[in-house]
Amino acid sequence: MGRTASWWLLALGLLGGLNVHAASPVWAIRGTHNTVYLAGSIHMLPAQDATLPAALEHAYADSAKLVMELDLGKLDPVEAASWMMDRGALPSGTHLRSVLGEARYGRVSGAAASLGVPMAGLDHQAPWVVGIELTDFAYTHEGFDPDQGVEEQLVQRAQADGKPTAGLETLPEELGGLVALSREDQIRMLDQTLDELKDLKGEMRDIVSAWRRGDTAHLATLLSTEYAAFPSLYKPLVTDRNQRWMPQLEALLHGPDNVLVVVGALHVVGAGGLLERLRQHGFTVTQLN
Hints:
It is a single chain. By secondary structure, this protein is an alpha/beta fold. It has helices at 4-11, 54-61, 77-88, 96-100, 102-115, 127-141, 150-161, 171-179, 183-196, 200-213, 217-229, 231-253, 265-268, 274-280; strands spanning 26-30, 35-40, 45-46, 65-68, 144-145, 165-167, 259-263, 285-287. β1 (26-30) and β2 form a beta hairpin. It contains 14 helices and eight strands. The protein has one domain (4-287). It is globular and about 60 Å long. The chain starts with a helix and ends with a strand.
């Protein structure tokens, strides 16, 4: 399928998860003495269409704590950018052109130019970083605002309300799988991203619409197709992280307070997804309307 740009949103917690017949992007999991709400998010929403679904509003209001993949309430943007620069830089003396070859470098340069991105900022970065940066710029170029994303709205509200926030992982844990990708897989991911940038606007419109109305059959198809097509990327971005998060989710389910947990679609649905894992561990999962 090659839908890599939207896959970044799915895999890195940027696009919210749903069930095929979902009424909302929120599930309630009954704990020992509490309820944990498991919700999906879209990292960037258009400013004119940024209202959160009613079920998500209810889950936030009924929770004493907000948990995200990364604790955005405590994330230092300067420190995060520094980490990306250190881990995502090509070896000293290496240029992106020599890594990609002339033809592929030309494609990257053309895409960057169309988005107003200076190549000087990409020329010494690893292909996985280039893919993420082009995708982020493309969504912004099409009118999607990171300040209107679900997590950003929720964390701003939590800070105003004095509600505590937490993260399931650190930035190194979230992106470590990408740093460890082979050069060949990084280039393959970048190729697929470039292939679909031209169709990004229509695809994101469809994704946002599906997220709001609960029509997620095509997201389930995306999940199964990309898993089969790119297992070396799926494992570190999805499977390994799900496994790391489960003890934390179970601890929350044995806690005293209701909690809202916000993660991405590839972590929620499908084989090995969090919903399946929670059911296997004996928890009751209920879709909210």
